[in-house]
Design goal:
5 helices; 115 residues; 0% strand
């Protein structure tokens, strides 16, 4: 069976059109692969958890009997060292865990330093 001559440009056009749509979709259309979507979802979920737990960390700091002295140290520390102080003081260690959460310590230090 012989393929008509007019089919060839149609097939080429469909192929190039599909490639063009993919390029535009991934570049400007906001399309992402499944792996990127999972990574974005995990990052968003982690940020939501930290945001929800930050008030608990701030409350832990307010319950600390040495809060006044430690807050002076926290405000005097550099922005890089604040999270270490929060973690060292145990404010970012949640019930049921043995180690402080670094992301929570960062968020808590930022909130405590702000006011």
């Amino acid at each position: 069976m012989r393929i008509p001559e007019w089919v060839k440009p149609g097939v080429y056009g469909a192929f190039l059109g599909a490639v063009g749509v993919m390029i535009v979709g991934f570049s400007w259309g906001g399309w992402v692969t499944g792996g990127t979507a999972r990574q974005l979802a995990a990052t968003g979920a982690s940020m939501a958890v930290v945001s929800a737990l930050t008030p608990i960390c701030v409350d832990n700091s307010k319950r600390d009997p040495q809060m006044t002295e430690r807050m002076v140290q926290l405000k005097a520390a550099s922005s890089y060292g604040r999270a270490d102080l929060v973690a060292k003081n145990g404010w970012a260690t949640l019930p049921g865990t043995s180690a402080p959460d670094r992301s929570l310590a960062d968020a808590c230090a930022d909130r405590l330093a702000a006011g």
